[in-house]
């Protein structure tokens, strides 16, 4: 079991410290460039302004890391004119502490209508059509429609996704750090495994490892042993590790909001012939997906390439089990899952700066599952791995 077991959590944590070469923050100029691109894409979509709600997209454009609540916090970007931030009056100090761009701030009190401020801004710009952040809750969309009955509403996805799907070198560097940190947490977690260990112990260690390297901890962590590995998002409970179990660990962290999401699968003990055969097939499917990810081809072709490998081996077809029950991959960035997607029906052409997971999991129902998940980013000449894929079932980290 090369690289599996033989150490302790204390020993492995003692070897960790803050990341030696942290990636640089997103600059003010880059955020301004994003806003100008959003203006163009909004105009191209036939709208006069774009509203961006609290959440990852607000962080993308304005540097504000707040999640959404029942109180409207939003950035309005007109195709011509200065952006406007709508926020509760009592949040002004907190907002100013995080804002990374210059905007006009319009505030509302608790007994006032924030969507009236949206309507007023659009009227002052002469806007006839407002593009809506696809993640903005219906609660706010409905109130905007009632506050501005003459204002046409349309999807803001072409502008928001059109910006966020294509990562800059600075974004890729932040994601590279996050993924490298998570891979190191994986490697050290494997060394701590012992028979009888609970999944919760592994989860706790991985969170501590992410924090020791300067992350906020694990954004999520799924640890499954044996039969639990046959369920793509696991089973409830706190299983104990036994000799011969498949170990499936899926976890990630963030660096300045940018996500990692890496899965490793191996066996605690000596793999049997079937475990090895399925692991090797998973490895081949992951490699086929990577090779298919060429500039200009549709996202769905990457998923098709992985499925061809599995179906040739007698699995599937399509989503049937035993086989691959979900898409081959998802976009990733400030959201852990974001457009575009490596799945049938997504015809988005692959282009420079797009970042994806590659995880064509194989499920053997009620027995075990193997998922190898690494991420790649697109360049002008083809895909590049953020992290090198696992090389063998019995040597998960080389």
Automatic annotation (TrEMBL):
InterPro entries referenced in this protein's UniProt entry, alphabetically: Creatin/AminoP/Spt16_N, Creatinase/aminopeptidase-like, Creatinase_N, Pept_M24, Peptidase_M24B, Peptidase_M24B_aminopep-P_CS
Signal peptide (from-to): none
Keywords on record: Hydrolase, Metal-binding, Metalloprotease, Protease
One family name in Pfam for this protein: Creatinase_N
Positions of the Creatinase N-terminal domain: 34-165
Domain Peptidase M24 as annotated: residue spans: 174-380
Molecular function GO labels: metal ion binding; metallopeptidase activity
GO biological process: proteolysis
Family: Belongs to the peptidase M24B family.
PANTHER family: AMINOPEPTIDASE (PTHR46112), AMINOPEPTIDASE YPDF (PTHR46112:SF3)
Protein name as annotated: Xaa-Pro dipeptidase
Annotated source species: Blastomonas natatoria
């Amino acid at each position: 079991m090369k690289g599996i077991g033989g150490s302790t959590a204390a020993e492995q944590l003692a070897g960790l410290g803050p990341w030696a070469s942290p990636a640089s923050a997103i600059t003010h100029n880059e955020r301004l460039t994003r806003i100008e691109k959003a203006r163009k894409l909004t105009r191209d979509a036939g709208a006069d302004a774009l509203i961006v709600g609290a959440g990852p997209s607000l962080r993308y454009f304005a540097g504000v890391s707040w999640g959404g609540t029942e109180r409207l916090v939003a950035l309005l970007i007109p195709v011509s004119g200065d952006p406007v931030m709508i926020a509760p009056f009592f949040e002004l100090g907190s907002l100013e502490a995080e804002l990374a761009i210059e905007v006009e701030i319009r505030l509302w009190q608790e007994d006032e209508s924030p969507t009236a401020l949206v309507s007023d801004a659009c009227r002052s710009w002469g806007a006839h059509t407002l593009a809506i952040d696809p993640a903005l809750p219906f609660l706010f969309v409905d109130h905007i429609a009632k506050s501005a009955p003459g204002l046409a509403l349309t999807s803001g996805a072409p502008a928001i996704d059109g910006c966020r799907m294509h990562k800059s070198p600075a974004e890729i560097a932040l994601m590279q750090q996050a993924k490298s940190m998570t891979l190191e947490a994986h490697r050290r977690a494997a060394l701590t495994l012992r028979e009888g260990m609970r999944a919760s112990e592994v989860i706790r260690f991985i969170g501590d490892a992410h924090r020791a390297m300067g992350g906020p901890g694990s954004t999520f962590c799924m640890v499954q042993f044996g039969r639990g590995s046959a369920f793509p998002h696991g089973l409830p409970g706190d299983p104990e590790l036994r000799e011969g179990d498949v170990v499936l660990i899926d976890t990630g962290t963030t660096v300045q909001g940018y996500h990692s999401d890496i899965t490793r699968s191996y066996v605690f003990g000596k793999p049997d012939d079937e475990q090895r055969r399925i692991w090797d097939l998973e490895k081949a499917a992951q490699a086929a997906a990577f090779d298919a990810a060429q500039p200009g081809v549709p996202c769905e072709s990457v998923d098709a390439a992985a499925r061809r490998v599995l179906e040739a081996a007698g699995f599937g077809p399509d989503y049937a089990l035993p086989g691959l029950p979900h898409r081959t991959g998802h976009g990733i960035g400030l959201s852990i899952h974001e457009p575009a997607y490596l799945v049938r029906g997504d015809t988005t052409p692959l282009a420079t700066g797009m970042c994806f997971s590659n995880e064509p999991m194989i499920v053997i129902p009620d027995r075990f599952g193997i998922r190898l998940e690494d991420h790649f980013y697109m360049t002008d000449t083809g895909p590049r791995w953020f992290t090198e894929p696992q090389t063998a079932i019995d040597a998960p980290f080389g």
